[in-house]
Design a protein that fits this description.
This protein is an alpha/beta fold. It has 2 domains: about 220 residues, Rossmann fold; about 180 residues, Nucleotidyltransferase, domain 5. The protein is built from 18 helices and 20 strands. The strands form 4 sheets. A 10-stranded mixed beta sheet has the order 1-4-5-6-3-7-8-2-10-9, with helices on both faces. The protein has a 6-stranded mixed beta sheet with strand order 15-14-11-12-13-16. Helix 13 links the parallel strand 14 and strand 15. The longest helix is centred in the first third of the chain and has 17 residues. It is elongated and about 75 Å long.
Length: about 525
């Protein structure tokens, strides 16, 4: 993609730094020693800048100046030779902040660059609603900052910075896109505070031995083309960072979160009914959130529909059974949609399945009633407050079933942080009346001033939708057996299925953060 540096919008909004210049020797690698005294660096920042590794990763404490150091390195490189650095931050505000700080540092060292704020971002697919901030150097170098997503990650070939990468949504897709952009000998800088034992940053850090909560030996650690740096708050303080550990610990009043923000400790997903390792083992690139274009299923389709207990969100999880393995083909999320409209969207998909289990608890009964009338023989209502044939509570039955399928490697699911988060949200809790499976209860503010906070269940719609899909498959053994034996299976009419699911997926692929409240109703699951 070629960016036009002198577009009308850019020309009107640009500003220029001072006019001095800085240069370095031929074959130059950015060095902290070339900086004027006005730029004061701490030893760990100097080590980071002076490290000439092509790929560098830093697991670091919050607020110790690693983004500052990374900005200095990219500035020196831009001054020395025509090149491009793209920085992807977790948000637009962070992207703008990175370039603003870089511009101030450039002025301090006597560099020249023109600033283009709020510039339209375009890629090979055309203009987008995304804006970028760009520093343009006289030698043709560019420092471009963008909010992180897979599309912006594909924007510019050249060097790349993934700032606070553990906090990027779609981190695997972003990393895959960036890896392509740096393929022709360019550099990659990945830095972040930890954000749980999940995501691409955790995987990269784990591979370098930087997830144990202690400094590696040596530090930085070298592995093939990678150099891994680890700097917690104690090491930073030893080397001159003016942060008070005692004050920060008192401010957080949460040792776990303090450890993650300042001690480089990746918080474990303790107590999750589905452990992270179990979920990670089930993730597969062949499983999809949106129905693959033109794909014709070879096995029967089974689905689960969870209706949110609080707020108006509904999730439909569609699996294709290939042999005895359930492959996720689509996850449809409807938010802010009345039940009649939900029915109109979901009914064609329900008819394409061999069986769909629908949460008919409380307000869910309305959607079930709609679908049961239009999809007779396919829709099955499941009351979460009911029991199965053996007298086991249905939520327990669903939770145990989904875990067994994960443990026996019979589920293949998409790799996505929102899916991981919701699958891990369910906890097993012992109560006076037995074991309960739910997301932890949290408090939310009442809309009435002065009223008590309301306790609701956390968000785990995808967990229950997937569990219902597993139940749907288990409740139709004849169809499963026929597929395993290679026999012809009479299935619902599927003509036009791909276009219908693709259309719905394009308009409803959202990441939601809702909570749920359990309501009771007589079970409508035949038993």
């Amino acid at each position: 993609m070629k960016q036009q540096p002198n577009s009308g919008k850019a020309s009107r909004s640009r500003s220029t730094t001072s006019t001095a210049s800085v240069s370095g020797p031929s074959g130059f690698h950015p060095s902290s020693g070339s900086l004027p005294p006005v730029i004061q660096l701490r030893p760990y920042q100097q080590r980071w800048i002076d490290d000439g590794a092509r790929f560098k990763l830093a697991v670091k404490s919050a607020r110790i100046g690693f983004s500052f150091g990374t900005g200095i390195e990219s500035l020196l490189d831009c001054i020395e030779r025509p090149t491009t650095w793209t920085v992807l931050s977790a948000s637009k505000a962070q992207s703008v902040e990175f370039v603003d700080l870089a511009q101030k540092n450039l002025k301090a060292i006597g560099g020249v660059a023109e600033l283009y704020p709020e510039e339209p971002f375009a890629d090979i697919e055309g203009l987008t609603s995304i804006t970028q901030t760009r520093l343009q150097f006289p030698n043709g170098s560019r420092l471009i900052a963008l909010p992180a997503n897979p599309r912006t990650a594909r924007g510019y070939p050249g060097n790349a910075i993934l700032d606070e990468f553990a906090h990027h949504q779609d981190s695997h897709a972003i990393f895959a896109a960036v890896a392509r952009q740096v393929a022709l000998g360019h550099k990659l800088r990945v830095l972040s505070t930890p954000n749980g034992e999940t995501g691409k940053f955790f995987e990269l850090a784990k591979d370098l031995g930087l997830t144990l909560g202690v400094a590696p030996s040596p530090n930085p650690v070298l592995k093939q083309a990678w150099s891994g740096h680890w700097v917690d708050i104690h090491l930073a303080i030893q080397e001159g960072c003016p942060i008070s550990v005692e004050e920060m610990r008192d401010l957080f009043k949460d040792e776990e979160m303090f450890g993650q923000e300042f001690l480089c400790v990746f918080v474990q997903a303790r107590g999750a009914w589905l452990p992270l390792e179990l979920i990670a083992n089930a993730e597969h690139d062949g499983a999809t959130i949106d129905w693959p274009a033109g794909y014709e299923p070879v096995g029967p389709l089974f689905a689960g529909i969870d209706v949110a207990r609080d707020h108006d969100a509904t999730v439909m999880w569609i699996d294709e059974l290939v042999g005895d393995v359930a492959w996720t083909r689509a996850i449809i999320v409807l938010h802010g949609t009345p039940f009649p409209e939900q029915h109109d969207i979901l009914a064609p998909l329900v008819r394409m399945t061999t069986r769909t289990c629908i949460d008919s608890t409380g307000m869910g009964v309305a959607l079930y009633d709609y679908l049961n009338k239009s999809c007779p023989g396919t829709a099955m209502g499941i009351n979460f407050a009911g029991t199965n044939d053996q007298g086991v509570k249905l939520k327990t039955d669903l939770a145990v079933r989904i875990k067994k399928n994960f443990e026996s490697a019979k589920s293949r699911i998409p790799r996505h942080p929102a899916i991981r988060q919701e699958l891990m949200a369910i906890k097993r809790e012992a109560t006076a009346t037995g074991v309960r499976f739910d997301a932890p209860r949290i408090e939310i503010e009442s809309p009435v001033a002065g009223a008590k906070k309301q306790k609701v269940y956390g968000h785990a719609d995808r967990f229950w939708a997937k569990a219902l899909a597993d139940l749907a498959a288990a409740s139709a053994p004849a169809a499963v057996a026929a597929v395993e034996q290679g026999e012809g299976v009479v299935r619902p009419e599927r003509r036009g299925m791909m276009s219908e699911i693709t259309r719905i997926g394009q308009t409803t692929h959202d990441v939601l953060v809702d909570q749920g409240v359990v309501h009771e109703r007589r079970s409508v699951w035949p038993r």
